[in-house]
Design goal:
This protein is mostly helical and about 250 residues long. The protein is about 50% helix and about 5% strand. It contains eleven helices and five strands. The strands form two sheets. Strands 1-4-5 form a three-stranded parallel sheet, with helices on both faces. Strands 2-3 form a two-stranded parallel sheet. The protein is globular. The N and C termini lie far apart (about 45 Å). About 35% of the residues are buried.
Amino acid sequence: INMVMVHSFISIAIILLSSISGCDAKLINTEASSSYWTKVRAGVAQSVNWIWSDYIIGKDIRRPPRKVKLALVGLGRTGSTSFSAALKQLGYSPIHDDEATEVSDIYGAMMDGSMAMDEVNIQLGKRGFDAPMISLPEYVEWASTAPDVKVILTVRDKSKWAQSWLSVLPAAFLPYHRPFSWVKSLQELAALNWEVMINVPTNNHPELYDDIPTLEAGFDAWTAFVKKTIPPEKLLVFDVRQGWDPLCSFL
């Protein structure tokens, strides 16, 4: 068994037990210069905090309806947390990690084919969201022709991204193990999570999910696919280190 996974699942067990006494979803992060294992522990801790507060405790948030205006198709660990916070400051309502449980039934229907992509976005808007983060080929293809929908692809250095990505990989496997396999919202999100965390980042080589060269090649392949599919006037390729100017100009 891969030792990264062994270490990660041990960490999950420890963190989950400590969370039972009470846990509020919070941001757990680490410095870019931190050791690999520090990043793994931070990633696992973040995953379990989100799962405990959002998936098990659950939340009931009612939002005014909106219409989807942005398709956010960057892979995770590309500054997506900071990017989501920036969009909220600009008045948008993105679906990032914390919000996914509010729409897990819609995402489940999207993945099993029982809801067409047009209807998916209508329903996301009715739940109060206008900027879903969905890094799926089918979503990129939908966004390429959707009227009045702009597309933002967040990017970063692929080598740093691949190293960072390893820290959150355990979350892709959680829905298939008890007690997480008993949680309805996790099951509804399982297929989407597998695609965006395993198949897309490896360019459909899931057996190499933790291989750095495969992840780097997958990152390049995804970036190239988005650039090829989305008309240039609809697309912003954005590194969060660029700051506000390119983002505000595009929006």
